[in-house]
User: Which sequence fits this backbone?
């Protein structure tokens, strides 16, 4: 029942042959064949070949059609015809037919586009130009495919949670600043001079309030904001699937997300994911992979050799072992083929960026013996022990970092990722989903000399760890769980504290005194006093899910109108100057 | 598969009798019956009667249960039993059973709530206290019902548009200030000192860009922001169902919304709405009802009597008619019964607030003659003509306003609404949906002595009115359409300009010079130059839809965490003070 067209450009096929149709779209390409013109007419749904040729097309229209150029917008009326034999295009859903034009209207012209919607990847201009002309960049098939994937993922999530009786509740964007964690974006209030709203870093407190208000299961696709210095995969505003459940423990929340993963992996990737998803504690993840979001698409696990290192005459090893540090290694199977001496030097330089002071290595020779420039510092028996520990076989490359525990984690995690990619240890299109659970409650901030919350201050300790809160906070483990996809944290959640007393204890451990707690979280503390249910939840990073599901590596390609790393929108020019009248009304002044 | 409960409080019924169940919830009420305790256990899903009584309940638990108070949170394990005969409660889905407790755990205590979740409407504390303790207020059944209705309305909208191939695209919250229309909320940028983002008043420009980018059909449930002095039914942040379509005319957009109205009216109200929804031009609406969003649940239409008034000796009438004003009337059928002389005085006072200098009236007597204190200024023949014009019958009350056209519209619209309500001319639960179309393009701002856009500067004139743009802008009508529900504007949209030349013409008519246009809308103008399709859309006010569908009259009752009319959140205290360090980082200072 549409006024301007009868069909889309992806719709006509054999069964329309002989019928009349009206299409609207963009000239994707055009070919002048002397007597007439062929255009590929494009819209979101597909492409249809449109033919301006006598005798179907009146001469005046053929004449007019000659002025058509790429990206002109046209309406064409015509008869659907079978393409001449041998001219069918099996790649197109409309590839068997063409529209022979009888009527025509030019709807709009286009200047020559600086970003060509049908350019190949290698012909694309730089990202700045693409972002500046986002209306053209968004016409590219890959962008449209990604945004449609995003639409389906979000719709799939919403439908899934609606089925499970979750209620979608909108929480405010104009909130209150709680300077715990990242930096807030602030919004000056005109009515309350000198006061500010803050944009939410997450709907955390509101969703907990909703549980205390009895909503039982809450879900929202929530926009969140962080005014941080941006890394490549961060945006000042980002979107999370945010949920919270009452009367649950960690297993319930993970179980619900397991089902979501299975649904979307099937829907979008055709994968049958086995449930429950594998779970690993934080301690195990750090021990085996040096990282709390390990990429489980491949092995290359970390192996502790501190006990062996302690027995060596190699001072770097023995002194680290003696001073409470760790000597850990990975065995790059058949790595000697891949890494020459120069290759190993490059790896050494690489791990230096992660704090490692060096990279010790051994090659495993044909006879199984270990060779290295440092081999002379080890007895043959000890070398044999190393070989056994690391399951060394001829051709393997053994790589060691000796340092404080944290440094060995960082450096070996980075090394493992690099070698995994370089030696192609996994299919880049493979998808691996898993959980990391039981994170530490607290992390000791060496600079500020105080405990900080590893997740956030509302996270509940494990029941068996309540006593550790006062005794040994560093050992205290949380009811926390992170969803990991291919080595990326794709979501994280916790069971929250629902007991006002425990909440106070955690606040004081974090150095948040009663006055500050009242000022920042007073309403939450009060709400806890009126019958708060046990509750917990999770947030999933939608931008990242889309990136992982699309197999892309630039988060800006997963967002319709992203910001640059300088947090600006190159198309609109935001942020921009405002009129002094606006600032005056707000009662603020710019410091020069 | 839940850890803490096997069922919700709304789930157990006859078919569970004899089975064991574990419930969690809030103590809604409790009755101590000597030997034991009855509690109504509540959650979002319902209420279940829970009985602590020997011999099922161990003595220790009975003892413990005696400390239970309202809003305590408990977990109870027990056996489902049929209620003793005569004790069933047919109002509850769980009314035939009770849970006889065998196991019990107190999950949390509650202080005495200052807002009682099961209070009757008349026992509710004032709104300020409710908003301050929103976590308690949101436990009330009516709030939960409204937010669940909201969830279903939004889900229903999303599903409807997904079916129709609309793609949900998120547009930025951190945008660019375009000081056309309402006042923007601003967000200072830390990275670009002195520059500001603005929160969107609507995704207008982004959705037009999406059409130019070929997305064809876009939809979003979008948060929008306006820093205005708030009226009772306005919020600083509000939610709209925002959509845009390519290659469409007004009929297409209205047709799509017609289908949505029919779906939701059926789903939520059980109504069969006849489609297409009635349409009326702006000119007709103003003529018949004095308002562009007329309440069509009742008649009481405005009738023009200027020609008759011109013939009278009543100076108020004749002078207004002579000076180009209007004399218009409504006939309140059988209104003489309802309005005594004092009642009419009250109406006169009421219309004065809308600028009317007076309210002339006639009663229609038993014999059909018109009587009034001003009757002597009219010949009997003329009075008869008035009677015929207004279809006067005995008992009717005829009410006249003589003034400039605008004043007669305002005053008589207000009068019509008041009389309609007071005389109960409609069922307050009735729902009437209609369209008002073809609004003027421009409104002349008498203060600023210039044309302003009636909708926004991107609205297309009707094709036949292009020439009026330059000749007589006041007569130019737009491709604009408003959805009206029960006299409220529930949505509004337009077909947009897709021709860069016409866009420039409209800008210059609005006094937006080339430089300003470039600065504010440069990217849109540029995008128009690269093949923009004809397009148009609409935005529906979701907060208001919920209010109308729920039959409520306070918009704050339709929003989980609303702001007051001073734009503050009484629960969190937003907006609040921030630390001077935060302002310093942003490079702004508060003016004292």
Assistant:
């Amino acid at each position: 029942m549409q006024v301007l067209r009868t069909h889309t450009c992806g719709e006509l096929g054999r069964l329309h042959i002989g019928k009349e149709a009206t299409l609207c779209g963009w000239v994707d390409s055009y070919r002048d064949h002397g007597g007439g013109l062929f255009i590929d007419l494009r819209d979101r749904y597909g492409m249809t070949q449109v033919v301006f040729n006598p005798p179907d097309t009146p001469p005046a229209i053929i004449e007019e059609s000659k002025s058509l150029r790429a990206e002109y917008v046209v309406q064409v009326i015509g008869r659907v015809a079978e393409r001449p034999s041998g001219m069918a295009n099996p790649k197109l859903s409309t590839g068997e037919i063409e529209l022979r034009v009888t009527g025509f209207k030019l709807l709009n012209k286009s200047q020559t586009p600086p970003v060509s919607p049908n350019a190949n990847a290698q012909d694309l201009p730089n990202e700045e130009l693409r972002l500046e002309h986002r209306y053209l960049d968004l016409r590219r098939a890959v962008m449209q495919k990604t945004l449609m994937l995003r639409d389906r993922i979000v719709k799939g999530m919403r439908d899934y949670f609606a089925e499970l009786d979750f209620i979608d509740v909108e929480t405010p964007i104009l909130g209150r600043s709680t300077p715990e964690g990242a930096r807030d974006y602030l919004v000056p209030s005109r009515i309350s001079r000198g006061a500010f709203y803050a944009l939410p870093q997450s709907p955390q407190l509101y969703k907990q309030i909703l549980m205390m208000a009895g909503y039982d299961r809450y879900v929202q696709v929530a926009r969140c904001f962080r005014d941080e210095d941006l890394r490549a995969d961060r945006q000042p505003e980002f979107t999370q699937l945010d949920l919270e459940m009452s009367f649950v423990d960690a297993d319930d929340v993970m179980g619900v997300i397991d089902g979501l993963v299975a649904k979307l992996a099937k829907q979008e990737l055709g994968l049958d994911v086995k449930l429950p998803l594998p779970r690993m504690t934080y301690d195990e993840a750090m021990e085996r992979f040096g990282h709390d979001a390990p990429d489980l698409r491949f092995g290359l696990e970390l192996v502790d050799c501190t006990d062996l290192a302690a027995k060596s005459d190699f001072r770097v090893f023995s002194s680290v072992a003696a001073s409470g540090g760790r000597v850990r290694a990975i065995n790059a199977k058949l790595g000697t083929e891949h890494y020459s001496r120069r290759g190993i030097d490059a790896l050494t330089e690489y791990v230096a960026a992660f704090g490692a002071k060096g990279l010790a290595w051994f090659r495993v020779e044909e006879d199984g013996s270990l060779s290295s420039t440092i081999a002379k510092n080890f007895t043959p028996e000890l070398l044999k022990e190393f070989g056994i520990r690391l399951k060394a076989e001829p051709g393997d490359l053994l790589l060691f970092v000796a340092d404080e525990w944290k440094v060995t984690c960082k450096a070996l995690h980075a090394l493992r990722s690099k070698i995994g990619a370089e030696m192609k240890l996994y299919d880049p299109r493979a998808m691996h989903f898993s959980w990391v659970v039981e994170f530490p409650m607290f992390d000791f901030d060496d600079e500020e000399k105080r405990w900080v919350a590893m997740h956030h201050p509302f996270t509940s300790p494990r029941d068996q760890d309540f006593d550790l809160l006062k005794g040994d906070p560093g050992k205290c483990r949380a009811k926390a769980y992170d969803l990991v996809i291919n080595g990326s944290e794709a979501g994280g959640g916790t069971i929250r504290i629902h007991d006002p007393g425990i909440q106070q204890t955690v606040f004081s451990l974090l150095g948040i005194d009663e006055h500050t707690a009242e000022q920042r979280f007073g309403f939450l503390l009060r709400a806890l006093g009126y019958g708060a249910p046990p509750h917990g939840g999770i947030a999933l990073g939608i931008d990242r899910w889309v990136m992982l599901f699309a197999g892309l590596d630039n988060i800006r390609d997963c967002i319709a109108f992203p910001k640059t790393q300088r947090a600006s929108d190159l198309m609109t020019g935001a942020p921009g100057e405002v009129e002094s009248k606006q600032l005056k009304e707000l009662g603020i002044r710019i410091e020069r």
The two ends of chain B are 59 Å apart (CA to CA). Residues 144-280+433-558 of chain B form a domain with the BirA Bifunctional Protein; domain 2 fold (CATH 3.30.930.10). Chain B is about 30% helix and 25% strand. The mean pLDDT of chain B is 95.
